[in-house]
Specification:
Layout lengths: L7 E3 L5 E3 L12 E2 L4 E7 L3 E13 L2 E11 L4 E10 L5 E8 L2 E8 L12 E10 L7
């Protein structure tokens, strides 16, 4: 049986604290990047915001990481990319839309005149979601 005390302890202010030397790692599941790829979606009655770490892997020399924040209401959404690193070129663009009260986080290949961007790349993400503090309509 897995002993979680080797990984976690109680932190200050009722937080979950990782033991020293413990980290998170991700490998998937991944999706393939094509135009209008829906990376994530959620009901805006449940969550009002999220923070994403998105990793795009097109091959040995083409990789990118994007950090972004998303907020959503019943009829609109906003996304801001506040961190981006890659090995020489942008592979993806990130947008957010609300459709029938569902937030959709969309990634597209960053296509330029001389490149197909990250078309066909593998994309994974991690997210932290923030619940609505008020019910819809209040």
């Amino acid at each position: 049986m897995l002993d979680f005390t080797k990984f976690f302890m109680q932190g200050l202010k009722k937080t979950l604290r990782l033991q020293n030397g413990v980290n998170f790692s991700y490998k998937g599941p991944w999706v393939q990047l094509y135009p209008d790829t829906i990376l994530d979606e959620w009901f805006v009655g449940d969550f009002c915001a999220a923070e994403y770490n998105i990793v795009i892997d097109l091959g040995i020399e083409d990789k990118e990481m994007i950090k972004c924040l998303v907020t959503a209401g019943v009829e609109q959404a906003d996304v801001v990319v506040y961190g981006r690193t890659n090995l020489g070129r942008n592979l993806a663009d990130v947008t957010a839309v609300v459709d029938a009260s569902r937030l959709k986080l969309i990634v597209d290949p960053a296509i330029s005149d001389d490149s197909a961007g990250g078309t066909g790349a593998k994309v994974i993400y991690s997210a932290t979601y923030y619940y609505n503090l008020n019910e819809l309509g209040t």
